[in-house]
Amino acid sequence: MSNSLQQLKQLVQAIHPITEAEWSEFVGIWHPFMAKRKTLLTVAGEQENYLYFVEEGVQRVYFLDQQGREATLVFTYAPSFGGVVDALMLQLPARYYYQTLTPSGFLRASLADLQLVMHQCPAIETMIRLGITQALSGVLERLVELQCYSSADKFRSLLQRSPHILQVVPHKYLANYIGVDPTNFSKLINSVRG
């Protein structure tokens, strides 16, 4: 089994254990996909057709308002699931963009294949539901940070969740995620580390 499939299996088993027979069904729906740096994988207003498993690279989900301002909502990197999952599962046009920040490698599964394997294997449907619930829990924690934390506290929290993030995500996107002007980001780094 390839390293990527092994990482996918470990992630699945950490969310909700499935049998080897269920794994055989699940692993069969994933296909390799590569994207260059700054590729829009999902565009707001369009349908999200895939669930991604990140093998390499860094991506972000972001919102673009009517004035053209970006709000970075989440970063994805190996080994994790990615995409605009609400649009995928609800079959609604995406409200967000999913963009590669670096050259990226994925395994991806189509919604049709995902729905079929979820229908055939209730444990896989349970795993998907639990994975989405864990993601929702993370979103709720993030809302608390946005509403209650200072910029320094948001940054500390981010570093606690993802200690390596400064090495993998360009600082201008981290500044956007935290909600500070990119020109002040180095001051924030120094104040938190100091």
UniProtKB/TrEMBL annotation:
Q: Which residues form a coiled coil?
A: none
Sorted alphabetically, the keyword list is:
Plasmid
Which domain of life does this protein belong to? Bacteria
Membrane spanning residue stretches: none
Indicate what this protein is called per its UniProt record.
Crp/Fnr family transcriptional regulator
Say which species the protein is native to.
Spirosoma rhododendri
